[in-house]
Amino acid sequence: HRMLASLDQACGGSAQLVRLVGEAGIGKSRLVKEFVARVGDEDRFRNVAVRQAACSPLGEQSFGALDAVVRSAAGMMQNENGDEIRGKLAALLTDLGLQGEEAKRLMPLLYHVLGLGDPDATLQHVEPEQLRRQILYAVRTIIERRLALSPLLIVVEDLHWADAASLEALRFVMDRLERTRLMLLVTHRPAPDNDQLDSNRVSHTALRLSPLNNDDGRSLLAALFGESWVNSAGGLLGQILDRSGGNPLFLEEIVRGLIDRGVLMREGQRWRTVAGEVAT
User: Fold this and answer.
1) Separation CA 46–CA 119 (nearest Å)
2) Is the CB of residue 145 less than 8 Å from the CB of residue 72?
3) CATH second-level architecture of 2-208?
4) Domain boundaries defined on the chain
5) Where do the H-state alpha helices sit in 27-162?
6) How does pLDDT run across 47-86, given as a tens digit for each residue?
7) Predicted model pTM
8) How many CA atoms lie within 13 A of 54 on its CB side?
């Protein structure tokens, strides 16, 4: 498994960037879920801290993807109020050994990343360019402190929706932490400008998920419904495979539709086709 091999290298002190590329519904999220579960199960990765974020199709605010990573690190829930978030942020900094003046300097910058405004008016006279640089260094500081405690796996899904500020910050961190126990795993759809994160300093792996061919699709259906059903499905099997276009998610949706309409029925341990075609 290429992703496990990359994490092994990261744990050895050589930072890794892994990009999982594929069309919508091709199985990127499922692969990430399986990978994270495997990391949790394997003894050699028991000390790896995992932080997960997903970018939103609704358009990210500035630093939106980083916001999600910080919330994951601090164990924040979606519906918490400002005071609860500030408490968890303070606890996170304490856990990372960041206290006193350093914590006081970082807090307003992290409030800004989290979209909490500037409650103490600490940043009101800071120029935008200076603020941008300070945030980059704040993010780097937090990740460095986390890496001093254990290896770190950061997962960012749907990077094609990420905001420019988050992309810049992730690139900044990867460029400066190439000799650390860090792995950044991102997923995105194919696009011409997918290389914003690519760095000359960090080992980079791109894994492209291809559509299923008919044999793969047949194997997936056999795993779900048994070899005997696949062998007896005849023309229906071909229709399902054609309609799915090699996309595993579409394949499952088509089959679910057939079950809902009573075309596919379970009898004891086996499945059988009652009648009908795949609706167009």
Assistant:
1) 39
2) no
3) 3-Layer(aba) Sandwich (3.40)
4) 2-208, 214-273
5) 28-41, 64-74, 82-95, 100-113, 128-149
6) 999 999 999 887 667 888 999 999 999 999 878 888 898 8
7) 0.81
8) 7
